């Protein structure tokens, strides 16, 4: 029997970037917020130890325990989905701060084209550019509307960068200067300019100087140690929720954080959310937390799963194309090429998570797609994140996977190989979606989320095109041998590729084709907001975090507006009843 707690104004499910932003913005306005986080509490002090690649990058110490909760996966509806038993293709974070603790810090704004992709594509190329199997749609918001929220997130996170001539227009410069140029980034930029491209330094949440954000939270200059991705930063030099929005919420006195609180259900009366049910993972006790407003701020897949499990919204049906919960799941494709240099050596072991240079000439609709069989594209970058010895053994194709030759080639090319890669946009397809698994359950007896996903012809054409462009850049950089990446016949859940999953609870201006409005407010429950990359109607050519942050700030504004309007409505109803 669950213990019923006293009602609160707002409860958030997950305390990472989105949960932290919602909590901070509401708490600053005097709203009482309870944040439920299923993982443990942690801070900068937890990472003040020797860098341990094995613990964090190999054994995934900061990631979700798949023995308790995982997903199932299949390529198509004719297959039976099987549980993902080890972390591979993507890394599901867990603990206070979520993936914002162990991210690289590469921070982008999605393009104006991204947000109005359906209407802009139809206008320029006609409605038949892609087949009807691609469930392309606009986001229900324009870039001009979202732009102030992008900047607010960049100020909070201390993003450093420089002008991107092919990127989204900016009303304000970045709060911080870009990261340093290195011999590797300079070589990339020179090659790109020789090819008439427009290179720039990658925007970064790794601090380029000591920084104090508008809420008074301080972060410190990056040491370029090369331990960002999969690691927490012991210097406090990488923007994270734990360094920014969470302490901002806590200092107001209006925010209560509960860790080890795993939410299993949203309580729903058929019209509104009435609260959540959660389990204390330490004691096993179950609680019901009533709330006036419920905000889902967990990871993409968990946002979708909780709605499906709680019976809120119509589940997506690929057979009919109807329903919205689980619809438009998108991943990313990773085209690229690797260059091998016989004589020159590079200090690839040094770096930072967002140290790199990019070109956007092949992203969005920045080039004419009239004569190609795909839309969109990819940001193309060279990253100097810091190669670590266990996870990095780049060797030319044809080298054995073990033995003396593998060892000698690994040693030779550790400092003599560079990769140029693209983050390829993923366009939603009718057969790629999220649903509940009918067979497998988690440690609490609840259905696992089922992922049905495979590459499409759009993916393959885009991958081939961008990989060739990456190879051209490496050839211009002087590589002696260049090998382009190829896409496999089918997507596989291993090995690691990217954690940029999107969709499932998509936004839009039509309840028939979207789950939330442009404040990320559920059409089916006006006091329930679902915040995160689950709202993306498709995936773009960038890391999603900057756009997630912008949408979170807009959602916070929407919650405050709804709270005020709802309060006025309640008062009006009471006056009417008294009369």
Account of the 3D structure:
Helix content is 24%, strand content 18%. It is an alpha/beta fold. The protein has one domain (3-578): FAD/NAD(P)-binding domain. Strands 1, 2, 3, 9, 10, 11, 12 and 22 form an 8-stranded mixed sheet that branches. α1 runs parallel beside α7 (245-251) and α5 (143-157) crosses α11 (545-578). The chain is globular and about 75 Å long. Residues 217-329 form the Glucose-methanol-choline oxidoreductase N-terminal domain. Residues 428-552 form the Glucose-methanol-choline oxidoreductase C-terminal domain.
What are the key terms here?
6-stranded antiparallel β-sheet; 579 residues; 8-stranded mixed β-sheet; alpha/beta; globular
Quick synopsis:
By secondary structure, the chain is an alpha/beta fold.
Specify the helix fraction band. Answer: 10-25%
> Biggest sheet, open or closed, and with what strands and sense?
8 strands, mixed
CATH C-level label: Alpha Beta
Relevant CATH superfamily: FAD/NAD(P)-binding domain
> What oligomeric state is this?
single chain
Number of domains: 1
- The gross shape turns out to be globular
Q: Mean of the pLDDT scores?
A: 95
What is CATH's topology name?
Answer: FAD/NAD(P)-binding domain
> What is the C-alpha radius of gyration, as a whole number of Å?
23 Å
The CATH architecture term is: 3-Layer(bba) Sandwich
Distance between the termini: 41 Å
Number of helices in the DSSP assignment: 11
Low-confidence stretches: none
Total beta strands: 22
What would you call the structural class?
A: alpha/beta
Q: What percentage of the residues does DSSP assign to strands (E)?
A: 15-25%
Pfam families: GMC_oxred_C (PF05199), GMC_oxred_N (PF00732)
InterPro entries: FAD/NAD-bd_sf, GMC_OxRdtase_N, GMC_OxRtase_C
Protein name: Gluconate 2-dehydrogenase alpha chain
Domain Glucose-methanol-choline oxidoreductase C-terminal: 428-552
């Amino acid at each position: 029997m669950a213990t019923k707690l006293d009602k609160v104004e707002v409860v958030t499910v997950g305390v990472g970037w989105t949960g932290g932003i919602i909590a901070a913005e509401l708490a600053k306005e005097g709203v009482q917020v309870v944040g439920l986080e299923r993982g443990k509490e942690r801070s900068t002090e937890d990472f003040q130890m020797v860098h341990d690649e094995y613990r964090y990058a190999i054994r995934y110490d900061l990631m979700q325990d798949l023995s308790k909760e995982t997903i199932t996966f299949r390529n198509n509806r004719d297959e039976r989905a099987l549980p993902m038993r080890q972390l591979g293709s993507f890394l599901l974070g867990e603990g206070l701060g979520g993936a914002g603790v162990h991210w690289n810090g590469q921070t982008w704004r999605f393009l104006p084209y991204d947000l109005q992709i359906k209407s802009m594509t139809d206008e320029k190329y006609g409605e038949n550019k892609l087949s009807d199997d691609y469930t392309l749609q606009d986001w229900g918001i324009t870039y001009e509307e979202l732009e102030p929220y992008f900047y607010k997130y960049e100020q909070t996170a201390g993003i450093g960068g420089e002008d991107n001539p092919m990127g989204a227009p900016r009303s304000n410069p970045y709060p911080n200067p870009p990261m340093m140029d290195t011999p590797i980034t300079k070589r990339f930029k020179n090659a790109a300019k020789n090819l008439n491209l427009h290179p720039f330094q990658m925007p970064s949440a790794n601090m380029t100087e000591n920084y104090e954000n508008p809420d008074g939270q301080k972060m410190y200059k990056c040491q370029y140690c090369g331990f960002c991705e999969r690691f927490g930063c012991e210097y406090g030099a990488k923007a994270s929720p734990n360094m920014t929005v969470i302490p901002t919420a806590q200092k107001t006195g209006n925010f209560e954080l509960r860790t080890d609180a795993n939410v299993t259900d949203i309580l729903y009366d058929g019209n509104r959310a009435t609260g959540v049910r959660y389990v204390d993972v330490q004691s096993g006790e179950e609680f019901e937390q009533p709330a006036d407003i419920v905000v889902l701020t967990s990871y993409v897949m968990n946002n979708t799963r909780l709605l499906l499990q709680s019976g809120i919204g119509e589940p997506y049906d690929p057979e009919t194309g109807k329903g919205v919960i689980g619809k438009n799941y998108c991943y990313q494709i990773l085209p690229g090429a690797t260059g091998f240099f016989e004589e020159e050596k590079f200090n690839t072991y040094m770096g930072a998570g967002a140290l790199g240079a990019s070109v956007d000439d092949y992203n969005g609709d920045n080039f004419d797609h009239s004569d190609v069989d795909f839309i969109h594209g990819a940001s193309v970058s060279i990253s100097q994140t810091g190669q670590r010895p266990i996870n990095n053994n780049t060797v030319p194709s044809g080298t054995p996977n073990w033995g003396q030759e593998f060892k000698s080639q690994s040693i030779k090319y550790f400092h003599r190989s560079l990769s140029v890669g693209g983050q390829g946009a993923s366009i939603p397809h009718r057969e790629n979606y999220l649903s509940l698994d009918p067979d497998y359950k988690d440690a609490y007896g609840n259905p696992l989320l089922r992922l049905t996903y495979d590459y499409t012809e759009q993916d393959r054409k885009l991958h081939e095109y961008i990989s060739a462009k990456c190879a051209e850049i490496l050839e211009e950089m002087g590589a002696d041998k260049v090998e382009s990446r190829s896409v496999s016949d089918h997507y596989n859940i291993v090995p690691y590729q990217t954690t940029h999953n999107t969709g499932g609870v998509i936004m839009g201006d039509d309840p028939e084709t979207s789950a939330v409005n442009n404040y990320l407010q559920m059409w089916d429950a006006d006091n329930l907001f679902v915040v995160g990359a689950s709202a993306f109607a498709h995936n773009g050519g960038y890391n999603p975090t900057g756009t997630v942050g912008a949408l979170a700030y807009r959602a916070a504004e929407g919650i405050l507006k709804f709270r005020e309007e709802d309060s006025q409505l309640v008062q009006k109803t009471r006056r009417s009843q008294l009369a």
